[in-house]
Amino acid sequence: MPRKLPPLTTLPAFDAAARHLSFTNAAGELNLTHGAISRAIRNLEDQLGVQLFERGTRSVSLTPAGATYAAEIGAALDQISGATLVATAPRSAGVLTVSTSDGFAGRWLVPRLYRFHRAHRDIDVRISTSGMLADFVRDGIDIAIRYGGGEYEGVVSELLSEVDVFPVCSPELLQGEHPLRMPADLRFHTLIHDGFPIDWATWLEKAGVTDINPNSGVRFDSATYATEAAVHGEGVLLGRSTLVSADLAAGRLVRPFGLELKASSRYYVVYLANALRQRKVKAFRDWLHEESRADAARGSLTPR
User: pTM, whole model, 2 decimals?
Assistant: First the structure.
């Protein structure tokens, strides 16, 4: 029996307008004119015999029928996008492109990536570092690791690790003229900042220390550089468990105090719904979870 389908060329316009609740923003996303978006949606409504949008003077909103239709069409377009990724994968079957932040790449992923290569010599890994969630199809991304709340539209999101936050420093700072033995000893040392939401002000308050300026010290935009500064004894970093796990295990960093705070955000493995059909993606995803569990067994972070 033939499928009853709407004009397929109208669906991207409808999907974009429904997500943005703006014909103008939908036009910008699709590189079309406002008039082209409006005509496509009007054509779709005429073919369906259903009004999908309430049009105001300066705004649009979905009708109840439009909201229901948008949810289904959005899911269908995500499936088509994933199927397209799978269908085109054989052209680069041996190359796996991973998107993540520079901090996670530099402090967690790269130091242990040799183990993945050793087990999967036929898969070449490419690392793309960005703070933005990648467009998997447009950017050619196979899998991503992201730090946040885990609610990413149109993709599968799996918890990789929870994050604890605590001070870390070089073992050298446990000795010398002003050894770190209690939180109050931080007054003799440089505070290192990496822009993380849980900052020194929060930690010092929980530790009951009130006579240290939490904004003093040296500040980095990159967690990689901030951690490297701590490794070289330049001060004390409020480290994220995931990003300092390898340095703690190797003895390059130590925890001078026991107080730790639980971060509200976590690290997630993110990929398109159909991506695990590709052996390279499944192998890497499984390896990430194995590494996370191994870290947890060493006591350096909390897995899912």
Answer: 0.67
